[in-house]
Amino acid sequence: MKIIRSYILFLVLVTSWFTLFAKGKKSSGDVTIGNLTGTVTDKADGKPIIGASISIPDLRTGTITDVNGHFNINNLPKGVYLVQVSYLGYSTYTEKVDFAKTTVLNIQLMSSTIETGEVVITGVSKATEIKRDPVPMVAVGKNYIDEHSASGNVIDVIANLPGVSAVTTGPNISKPYIHGLGYNRVVTLEDGIRQEGQQWGDEHGIEIDQNSIDRVEIIKGPASLTYGSDAIGGVVNMITSSPVSEGKILGSLTGIYGTNNGLINTSLKLQGNNNGLVWGTVISDKMAKDYKDPHDGRVYATNFNEKDARVMVGLNKSWGSSYLNASVFDDLQAIPDGSRDSLTRQFTKQVTEADTYRPIVPASELNSYGIPTLHQHVQLYRIYNNSNFILGSGNLAVNLGYEYSHRREFTHPEDGTIPGLNLTLSSYTYDVKYNIEIGKGYETTFGINGMYQSNALGYSTDFPIPAYHQFDIGPFFAVKKSFGKLDLEGGLRYDSRSFSGQAAYVDTATTFPTLYTGPNPTSTPNVTRQFSALNKTFSGMSGSFGGTYNFSDRFLIKANVARGFRAPSIAELSANGPDPGSQIYHVGNSSFKPEFNTQEDIGAFLTLPNVSASAEIFRNNLQNYIFQEQLLDPNGNPQRVNADGSPNPTGQYSKFSYMQSKAQIQGGEFSLDIHPWPWLHFENSLTLTYGTNLGTGGRVPDSLKYLPFIPPAHTHSELRGTFAKGFSSLKNVYAFVGFDHFDAQNHYFSAYGTENYTAGYNLVSAGIGGNLVNSAGKKVIELFIEGTNLGNVSYQSNMSRLKYFDNSTVPAGVQPGIFNMGRNISFKVVVPFDLSAHPKS
Predict the structure, then answer these.
(1) Of 268, 267, 274, 266, nearest to 249 (Cα)?
(2) Whether the Cβ atoms of residue 64 and residue 39 lie closer than 8 Å to each other
(3) Which residues, 6+ apart, have CB-to-CB distance to 131 below 8 Å?
(4) Do the beta carbons of residue 610 and residue 676 sit within 8 Å?
(5) Contact, 413 vs 420, CB < 8 A?
(6) Start-to-end C-alpha separation, the chain
């Protein structure tokens, strides 16, 4: 608590100092220039567009048009900023506007048959158009998130995007994968603040409330230039709601129900803006029973109960903006192990520590919301500040965050209150960058960011990683410049990461192994060394350079080459113990070198009135690639061990060690969207990813040839109808039918039984929805219905860890492992409300 109070005081002092400094600038007449007003009309008939969204992403401000198509935004600073205007059924309008010269902006939107989706990305130095940036990017907004309400969590929402997938351990645990890379190679952020938990763990998901996210931005490829170590695979930035318009108090009540596992997800959102004093809150509750599939029935221990809350308060003034956010994530998550009765193949559960017999799980428990004795309890407390100050001719962005992650895994059936795993991780993150235009159009960013971490071991019986301290720092710069039709972008960065791992000893004389903290650990009976002290420092350069050539508004090509840097994680360096949730005993290697990668990307994009197409290919060469492989016992069988690491053919854990090698991942994404009529869309995409282990010299055996967790070839086709003007009181109506084909995965890491073949499969999905409006045109109810796996297909995803959860031996002719979720239909209802003070007539 002392640390938290000190950090809050630090945030307040920093924010107050910059606020006073900025106000000083304001008083000199150098900052404030006034308002931006204008109208938004339909270019075809000149009629005003009601409810069009006008936003200035860099300033986190905006508004919507009134009944006359008019808008007004107050207290804008001096400078050039990207303005975005959007409305469903029209092409999104973007323009860089100099607020020192422009105070009136009248905009005509063109009706479009092409669904452009999100066209601006904000998770870079400054807001920019995705199509003009050479780095491969994609973004999805609130409409996309709402229409995919059947997704169990926010990562599953984006897992079907081209080039993106997810490693899953049931419906509420998903880790993002980009171009075949995940875990500590993809940086996940919330509002630009690093999400730090125990992401090295297989079953450790992303601790973010999906109900609080309005937008997701993804960088596909090395992004170490801006984000530092760990971003060699890419970045997933999840963005919460922007402030509402001046004078508004708006809210919504959301309810989601899923038929497969009885998912009940409720959320209350409320936001306000009074003369630039902005605030907001989101409170959510989500729970589900065990999911079911046609092969396994209900899958024991896949249920969960999650509670979330967040609050934001901030200022949005002419000197800039500053937002203080605080949130709590609290999740009770069951731990599946896949054990079955040998005769009936019904799920069984562990009830004694000795584990000499396992009873069959009764149907009443499979159909219950109650969390079993063996479960995870994951809590994440977060406080962070996003500030953007107008200084001189540029802006200073300051992002400071503190997170406290507490993860417990309760793995003792007769002592349900004793955690097998108990980790507490404190993370302090900082990100400071100054954006300024130097010379004629050179958009330049100078910055420094990093973090400090402290991991502690609480009272528990399993110790997979040591207590440690970590410090990161990385200065960088980036430059953008347009030369007519050519846009160029590049930059460099230098990173340093230091680890300090603490030695630890375990007392084995007690009922359960416990950490020994007494004197003379090396000479005390029944005390063994679990971890040796470790001090390591890793450093390296990273950079990026690329360009986009706009042949016309309809055709462009872009190319980029980037070098990334990643220091090994604490698990890869020092692991020596079991992780109960993953059923793996991890063994690290302190001699590892940092990973480096070089990725080349090239893409071509065509947009015609009724057809759009794109082709993007990439090649990623990795040096010192770190991966896990299963160890074998003297008989050549996968090694099984007890919690203390002692060999046992029937032990609970499989033993894995970390290895290092050269590797290459290559592939591409291809799309073809046909729009024969304004309301009809036929969208198609193909994603290919191939990962190869190049070894360390000499021929690589066939069993080691491919990298683990590489997604198979995936095609997605969707026939969609959209009717923005709707029918009578129904507006923004849509309906779609989707078809997904996943190839068989023949290219898998087969050595030592680490992975096995995955059969191909086809899935059908569908959705329908729209808004019910009143006579004044205001939304009364928003409805979104989505059905997934409508054919109730029995399948196993190559990216599902449950595929490997079963008894050590299974009957002949039976496909081992747990199958993915069967048919599920999700109903999402949003009831918006307006508590704003309305002027008296």
Answers:
(1) 274
(2) no
(3) 119, 548, 556, 605
(4) yes
(5) no
(6) 51
Name residues whose C-beta falls within 8 Å of residue 268's C-beta, 6 or more positions apart in sequence: 251, 252, 253, 254, 281, 282, 283, 284
How do residues 238-297 score in pLDDT, each as one tens digit?
Answer: 999 989 988 899 999 999 999 999 999 999 999 999 988 999 999 999 999 999 999 999
Q: Is 186 exposed, middle or buried (0-12, 13-18, 19+ CB in 10 A)?
A: buried
User: For 657-691, what is each residue's pLDDT tens digit?
Assistant: 888 999 999 999 999 999 998 899 999 999 999 99
The model's pLDDT over 210-241, given as tens digits with 9 standing for 90+, comes to: 999 999 999 998 877 888 888 999 999 999 99
Strands (E), 351-441: 375-391, 394-410, 421-438
Residues near 535 by beta carbon (within 8 Å), at least 6 away in sequence: 498, 499, 500, 501
Question: CB atoms < 10 A from the CB of 71, how many?
Answer: 22
Do you know the residue count of the chain? Answer: 841
Q: Which of 114, 3, 93, 75 is nearest to 39 (CA)?
A: 93
Q: Comparing C-alpha atoms, which of 153, 152, 653, 169 is closest to residue 411?
A: 653
C-beta of residue 538 within 8 angstroms of C-beta of residue 594: yes
Q: Name residue 154's amino acid.
A: V
Tokens, residue 177: 């994968």
Q: Structure pTM?
A: 0.91
Q: Which of 609, 484, 612, 597 is nearest to 548 (CA)?
A: 484
How far is Cα 4 from Cα 403, in angstroms, rounded to an integer? 9
Pairing of strands 32-42, 107-109: parallel
